[in-house]
Amino acid sequence: MGLSDESFVLGVDLDGVCADYTLGFRDFCAERLGRDPESFPLDRSWDFREWGFDDAMFEEMHHAAIVEGRLLADLPVIEGAADALWRLSDAGVWIRIVTHRLYVNWSHHAAASDTVAWLDRARIPYRDLCFVGAKADVGADAYIDDAPHNVAALRRSGRHAICFTQPYNTQVTGLRADNWAEVEEIVYDLMVAKGTPTAPQLPGFDSGADRLERRATGESTGTDGPGTMSDASGSQPGE
Ligand SMILES: [Mg+2]
Asked: Could you state, in order of their start, the residue ranges of all structural domains in the chain?
């Protein structure tokens, strides 16, 4: 099944939602600057002021992390993201990755290629991959994002935007999820509100994100034998 008016499209941000940018960036900065990682608090503001960074310092370190450290290929996966996205995908949600990772000049090759490699490694299912700053323009039914300015802009455009809790966005009001289980619940509610037909997973069926790896190794998933479409990367169930 392709994209139709009945589809429910979920716009999914990466950094701070699926990928733990703060943790990965902290390790890079600690090594690069020869400082104790503990001197970079994970409980930080959006502008990293607790790390002693001004805008120029952040830009310099971020660029080095992307291009030299290949940070985006190696970020920790935020707990529950892959499993929740597989279950949502199985329920008929169209997963559209929407990230602004190309905002730094002269690092697009590393940013784009490392993003694709990371998505495979993280076992995150998706049908579209959008590198865009104006996130409302890609027209998803709902978005999950951690950046206060993105959540605000999406809501101004009349979109449902779920704020994924991080230390720098606790002031944001409205729809919020503290973890991926809560994202899932909110998305199901929004699908029902839209009237989207859902295909919820039956109890006992395989919803594990490691199905891709099992398929690659030829091991049975227990519900679908290897060779069915439902396990193929980039070709999601129902397609
Ligand atoms: Mg983000």
From this structure: 8-19+77-194, 21-73
Reduce the DSSP state of residue 137 to 3 states and report it.
Answer: helix
Catalytic-role residue among 5, 13, 114, 178: 13
**Tens digits of residue pLDDT in 65-123:** 999 999 999 999 999 999 999 999 999 999 999 999 988 777 899 999 999 999 999 99
- Give the pTM: 0.84
Spatial CB neighbours of 192, under 8 Å, sequence gap ≥ 6 = 198
147 and 154 Cβ atoms separated by less than 8 Å: no
Instruction: Tell me if residue 189 is catalytic.
Output: no
Encode pLDDT of 159-216 as tens digits.
999 999 999 999 999 999 999 999 999 999 999 999 887 765 555 555 556 655 555 5
CA of 233 to the centre of ligand 1 (A): 24
19 φ/ψ angles, rounded to the nearest 5 degrees:
-115, 135
Ligand 1 centre and the CA of 35: distance in Å?
25
Q: Which CATH number fits domain 8-19+77-194: 3.30.530.20, 1.50.40.10, 3.30.1340.30, 3.40.50.1000?
A: 3.40.50.1000
- Kindly give the pairing relationship between strand 160-164 and strand 176-177: parallel
Q: Residue 13 catalytic?
A: yes
Residues near ion ligand 1 (CB < 5 Å) are: 13, 15-16, 146
Distance 223 CA to ligand 1 centre (A): 34
